[in-house]
């Protein structure tokens, strides 16, 4: 039974789990080691990176279209929840957070953002916490920006506004 391959068109925004939101800029055919390959050429502007993904591998690497509005709403609702802070060692939590970010799952990324957010009146984050928080926020903001057709700073501000409002409620 053949699985229906995902199809993306030139100009489509896509999410590649390890790199976030990119855009299909070209469909290419290349012959590599005597085998003809169809490739999606993806451009990630923020990283100034181009990635070639074989069309038959797009699904197995987790490449997907932008999330639905329902999924984005669920992710934004996740930001409003009470942060869950585990008392395990930071190195273990950091690994879990990185895995969630690289999964490409919007709700998991939103959980990382929510759990690592620090309001102005809370203790400061360590350098590594801030790095992971910023990576997760950027990932979420880029997808939100692509969906709402705004720039990333505007999407980031929307996310931070939601987090600040939630912190005001949870920290009473």
Structural description of this entry:
The chain is α+β, with helices and mostly antiparallel strands and 172 residues long. It has five helices and five strands, in the order E-E-E-E-E-H-H-H-H-H. A five-stranded antiparallel beta sheet has the order 4-3-2-1-5. Helix 2 (90-103) runs antiparallel to helix 3. The radius of gyration is 18 Å and the shape is elongated. The N and C termini lie far apart (56 Å). InterPro entries: CarD-like/TRCF_RID, CarD-like/TRCF_RID_sf, CarD-like_C, CarD-like_regulator, CarD_C. This is CarD family transcriptional regulator. Residues 7-117 form the CarD-like/TRCF RNAP-interacting domain. One of its GO terms (biological process) is rRNA transcription.
State which percent range the strand residues make up. 15-25%
CATH class of the largest domain: Mainly Alpha
Strand order of the largest sheet: 4-3-2-1-5
What name does the CATH topology of the largest domain carry? Methane Monooxygenase Hydroxylase, Chain G, domain 1
Ends distance: 56 Å
Number of helices: 5
Mean pLDDT value: 88
Which ranges are low-confidence, i.e. pLDDT below 50, for 5 or more consecutive residues?
1-5
Helix content: 40-55%
The domain count comes to 2
Gyration radius, rounded: 18 Å
Main sheet characteristics: 5 strands, antiparallel
User: What gross morphology would you assign?
Assistant: elongated
Oligomer designation:
single chain
């Amino acid at each position: 039974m053949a699985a229906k391959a995902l199809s993306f068109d030139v100009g489509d925004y896509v999410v590649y789990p390890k790199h976030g939101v990119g855009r299909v800029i070209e469909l290419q055919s290349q012959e590599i080691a005597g085998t003809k390959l169809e490739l999606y050429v993806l451009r990630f502007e923020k990283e100034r990176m181009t990635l070639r993904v074989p069309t038959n591998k797009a699904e197995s690497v987790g490449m997907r279209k932008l999330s639905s509005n329902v999924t984005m709403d669920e992710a934004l609702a996740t930001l409003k929840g009470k942060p869950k802070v585990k008392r395990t060692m930071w190195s273990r939590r950091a690994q879990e957070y990185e895995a969630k970010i690289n999964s490409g799952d919007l709700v998991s990324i939103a959980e990382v953002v929510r759990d690592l957010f620090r309001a102005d009146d809370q203790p400061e984050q360590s350098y590594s916490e801030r790095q992971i928080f910023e990576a997760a926020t950027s990932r979420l903001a880029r997808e939100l920006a692509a969906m709402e057709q705004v720039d990333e700073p505007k999407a980031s501000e929307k996310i931070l506004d939601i987090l600040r409002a939630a912190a005001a409620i949870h920290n009473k």
